[in-house]
Amino acid sequence: MNNKITKLRKHLNLSRVKFSQAIGVSNTQMRRIEIGEVIPGEQLIRKICSTYHVDPRYFAGSVDLDDAVRVVDQEEKKREVGKRLREARLESGMTLKELSALIGLSDSQLCLIENGEYKLTEKRAKQIGEVLCIGVEWLLYGDEKNKDFPVDGNEYYGAAEPPVRSIQSQCSGGMEPL
User: Fold this and answer.
1) Rounded to an integer, what distance in angstroms lies between the CA atom of residue 165 and that of residue 178?
2) Per-residue b/e over 36-64, b at no fewer than 16 CB within 10 Å?
3) SS3 category, 37
4) 3-state class (DSSP) for residue 163
5) What pLDDT shows up at residue 45?
6) pTM value > 0.85
7) Would you say residue 103 has pLDDT above 90?
8) Backbone phi, then psi, for 35, in 5-degree steps?
9) Which of 27, 58, 134, 162 could cross-link to 68 by cystine, CB 3.0-4.6 Å?
């Protein structure tokens, strides 16, 4: 497994620092994974697959590296994120103006993100995830297994209190007044 990660990183022509930053792992931890001191967990493998558009069967050994990697440019990534954001917002019944007010972003900026013209930051993705009851992994990387909020079942991404609306009632279908 560890050798497969190193081969993938080198295939993508990425330094260990760049590779690990994109998946939220320290350079030290990535070094330990690559030399076999640490075995990567399933969640990390899923994150690598979604971040770098790698067929998960590569890590199981049933697909070779060249066939497993799908090259996606940054513009396409922004469009995909925007499409998922719009889908989630519309499914929630929320207008662009309502969502932008709840996350502290102008409606024009949110519109640019939805249209794939502006990159969605992880910080904003977490805010949106909390409000729309969607997983950040799904929003940013398209990981369908993590579409539902919260991703780990009990975390508000570091917030001491649920944001603006009661997450429990909103995510279970009931909405409290603003």
Assistant:
1) 7
2) eeeebeeebbbbbbbbbbbbeebbeeeee
3) coil
4) coil
5) 92
6) no
7) yes
8) -95, 0
9) 58
Point out which residues pair with 54 in neighbouring strands: 69
C-alpha triplet 40, 42, 133: angle, nearest 5°: 130
CA dihedral (175, 158, 151, 105) in degrees, to 10, reads 60
109: nearest Cα among 80, 90, 141, 82: 82
Q: How far apart are CA 11 and CA 136, in angstroms?
A: 27
Tokens 């519309």 appear where?
Answer: 90
Nearest to 88, CA basis, from 137, 24, 153, 158: 137
Q: How high is the pLDDT of residue 2?
A: 63
Give the C-alpha distances (Å, rounded to integers) separating 121 from 29, 114, 129, 140.
23, 13, 12, 9
- Report yes or no: 85 and 112 within 8 Å, Cβ to Cβ: no
CB 88 within 8 A of CB 147: no
Yes or no: say if 15 and 33 are a contact pair by the CB < 8 Å rule.
Answer: no
Q: How crowded is the C-beta side of 44, counted as CA atoms within 13 Å? A: 16
Domain annotation for the chain: domains and CATH numbers? 2-68 (1.10.260.40), 74-171 (1.10.260.40)
Give me the mean pLDDT over the 17-27 stretch: 91
DSSP characters over 89-145: HHHHT--HHHHHHHHT--HHHHHHHHTTSSPPPHHHHHHHHHHHTB-HHHHHH--GG
